[in-house]
């Protein structure tokens, strides 16, 4: 199977995303092509290290670049100030310079944390992403957002720091639990729903092949990266259009918070899946989109095995007012109105700047599981 | 006395530096002009707060913007990961958004730390500098370098984050100890020595008026900011010319490290003063510049009361080899050669990329105090 290259066009910060099987084991050679003479440090977590560290270290060493290895515990708790300090100190202790390369080998947590560390050591070092989850390959590895969590909210602390190269090894996804692959797939479908109706239709037909691997999977990841790269190139620092990428995330984040970020009940991509279905249903309720489109989104999420309504979340949820409270924690409510990503139909999403709070609360009441 | 404005031309990151007396007490109005509706947090240290916090809080409050205040201990130890976390947490706790303003009220330590915090909360908030030391007004407040220290070296962790506005209140300098004012003056003289021979000549004539305050002081600060702004506009991210700003800093940093950053023996600006004199003397020894120019630099530093040779540092210094060790800690030595800022004469400095280590060591031996 051949490797697909997606170029992220950001002027002098432009970079390539390579997508295909076996890229981790070719890391040494591919990094050397772009960053000759750069020494390297790999940041990873214990789970990913067990599956993928050895071939990467071997490949870098074969290219004459024996890397420092910084290994952290797996899980969301690692996106903390403490871990950031550990990574920063270890990179400095390894005596890496600005022109050397910090490699993130892992999922979104490792990518976000490592990118942040690479962005602040010596005011910005070379950064290479090797995302090993579907979510990281199609979302967090494109666009340069890095960060950690604050006790007061997720991703509140970070920088924009673009990688020099992204290697998305599609074979690494074979080691993912099905539930995690599915959760990442929610973000793939999101790109169709934002502004690529043809891609969404293609997914409705081809999703089984995307799940089973092979060329369709590479194609879906490449389309997703292209879609995100287009938005990011238009609005690198999120002052406008980039907000479209939050489709499904307002409801989704509220549900994640309402379930106390308990991954046994709801993981991020599942929250986004339910959030996207709700955003379409809410748009229909506001007479902005056809209820048929909302039904089509719900059907596709159900087909692939993703949750699509609040009732799909195991355990009890807080009531509608409390859910609304989680939404407003996330954003400013000015004069009783909120900003939401809504839609006029499949692939026609837009930024709605004055959604009345009262409509949101009524909608949550109608769609509440309880 | 009128206020002078220096524009830092960085495209969509351009900003103004206002220089003149009484600007702190006008902070509320001046910030509101540029950032209408922005709420504010002030970061300062206990010493500066005693002298300057009240008028600033009053001015902001009068403009309808009651600020959050984050007060830290004074001193270099505050440039730490712990303080960074405190400032970041406090900004988030004050519920400030990206469009709100984080104000640094203080010297270089507060400016560097606060700029870093403003650069990473929500991936970059508005930042306003109100430098209260001469060093901060002419150096750290121009150019967007922010950062903290690592146990392994100074300023190793940080970001480039440009302020939206700098208010350099020249009356605030009247509260500085003379020794601190002098140390800041070393960086003023540096701009003449880098590439403005007329400015250096003007300083030789007018330095007494710069020290006593008034129009000459404002003029010297404005010239310094213009000089630094020119270099920064050419090379925002320090990939080339910006290195010229390190004139005097290679020797200076080594001497600071050799005296264990003990401010009772040597403060940063004094290290730079000795470093600039040594850079000129070393250039003369390498037959690149006239010894007369080195003598002229030494004479001016002596006139204003700054140390200009290693013998001026109280207490014993490590021997020449050990000093050379401190220099190489700071930079890469590739194949026995180092990069230095040298000069062909007053105002004719340049980046020398392959200075033989052996020449540096011989020079240090000849000029050693012991």
Automatic annotation (TrEMBL), chains A, B:
Pathway noted in the entry: Metabolic intermediate biosynthesis; chorismate biosynthesis; chorismate from D-erythrose 4-phosphate and phosphoenolpyruvate: step 2/7
Primary subcellular site in the record, as a coarse category: cytoplasm
Any one Gene Ontology molecular-function term assigned to this protein's record: nucleotide binding
CDD domains recorded: DHQS
SUPFAM superfamilies the record matches: Dehydroquinate synthase-like (SSF56796)
Gene Ontology CC annotations of this record: cytoplasm
Residue ranges occupied by any 3-dehydroquinate synthase N-terminal domain in the UniProt entry: 70-182
Reaction catalyzed: 7-phospho-2-dehydro-3-deoxy-D-arabino-heptonate = 3-dehydroquinate + phosphate
Binding sites annotated in the UniProt record for NAD(+): 108-112, 132-133, 145, 154
GO biological process: amino acid biosynthetic process; aromatic amino acid family biosynthetic process; chorismate biosynthetic process
Occurrences of domain 3-dehydroquinate synthase C-terminal (ranges): 184-333
Subcellular location: Cytoplasm
InterPro entries: Dehydroquinate_synthase (IPR050071), DHQ_synth_AroB (IPR016037), DHQ_synth_fam (IPR030963), DHQS/DOIS_N (IPR030960), DHQS_C (IPR056179)
Enzyme Commission code(s) on record: 4.2.3.4
Binding site for Zn(2+): 187, 249, 268
Superkingdom, taxonomy of origin: Bacteria
Cofactor binding: number and manner: Binds 1 divalent metal cation per subunit. Can use either Co(2+) or Zn(2+).
Family per similarity comment: Belongs to the sugar phosphate cyclases superfamily. Dehydroquinate synthase family.
PANTHER family: 3-DEHYDROQUINATE SYNTHASE, 3-DEHYDROQUINATE SYNTHASE, CHLOROPLASTIC
NCBIfam families recorded: aroB
Function: Catalyzes the conversion of 3-deoxy-D-arabino-heptulosonate 7-phosphate (DAHP) to dehydroquinate (DHQ).
Protein name from the UniProt record: 3-dehydroquinate synthase
Species annotation: Aminobacter anthyllidis
Organism taxonomic ancestry: Bacteria, Pseudomonadati, Pseudomonadota, Alphaproteobacteria, Hyphomicrobiales
């Amino acid at each position: 199977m051949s490797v697909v290259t997606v170029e992220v066009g950001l002027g002098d910060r432009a970079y390539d995303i390579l997508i295909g099987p076996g890229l981790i084991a070719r890391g040494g050679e591919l990094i050397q092509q772009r960053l000759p003479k750069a020494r390297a440090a790999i940041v990873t977590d214990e789970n990913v290290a067990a599956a993928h560290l050895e071939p990467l270290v071997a490949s870098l060493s074969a290219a004459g670049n024996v890397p420092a290895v910084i290994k952290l515990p797996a899980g969301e708790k690692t996106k903390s100030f403490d871990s950031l300090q550990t990574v920063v100190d270890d990179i400095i202790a390894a005596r890496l310079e600005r022109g050397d390369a910090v490699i993130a080998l892992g999922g979104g947590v490792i990518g976000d944390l490592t990118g942040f560390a690479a962005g602040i050591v010596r005011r910005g070092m070379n950064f290479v992403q090797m995302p090993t989850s579907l979510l990281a390959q199609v979302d967090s590895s494109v666009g340069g957002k890095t960060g950690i969590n604050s006790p007061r909210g997720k991703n509140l602390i970070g920088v924009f720091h673009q990688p020099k190269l992204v290697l998305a090894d599609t074979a690494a996804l074979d080691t993912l639990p099905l539930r995690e692959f599915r959760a990442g797939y929610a973000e793939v479908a999101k790109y169709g729903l934002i502004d690529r109706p043809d891609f969404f239709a293609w997914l409705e037909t081809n999703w089984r092949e995307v799940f089973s691997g092979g060329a369709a999977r590479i194609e879906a990841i490449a389309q997703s990266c292209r879609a995100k790269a287009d938005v990011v190139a238009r609005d690198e620092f999120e002052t406008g259009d980039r907000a479209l990428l939050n489709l499904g995330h307002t409801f989704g984040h509220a549900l994640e918070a309402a379930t106390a970020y308990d991954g046994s009940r709801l993981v991020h991509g599942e929250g986004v899946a339910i959030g996207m279905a709700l955003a379409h249903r809410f748009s229909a309720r506001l007479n902005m989109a056809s209820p048929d489109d909302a039904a089509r989104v719900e059907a596709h999420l159900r087909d692939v095995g993703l949750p699509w309504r609040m009732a799909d979340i195991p355990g009890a949820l807080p009531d509608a007012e409390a859910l609304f409270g989680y939404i407003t924690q996330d954003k400013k409510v000015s004069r009783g109105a909120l900003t939401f990503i809504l839609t006029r139909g499949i692939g026609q999403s837009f930024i709605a700047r004055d959604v009345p709070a009262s409509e949101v609360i009524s909608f949550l009441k109608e769609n509440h599981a309880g």
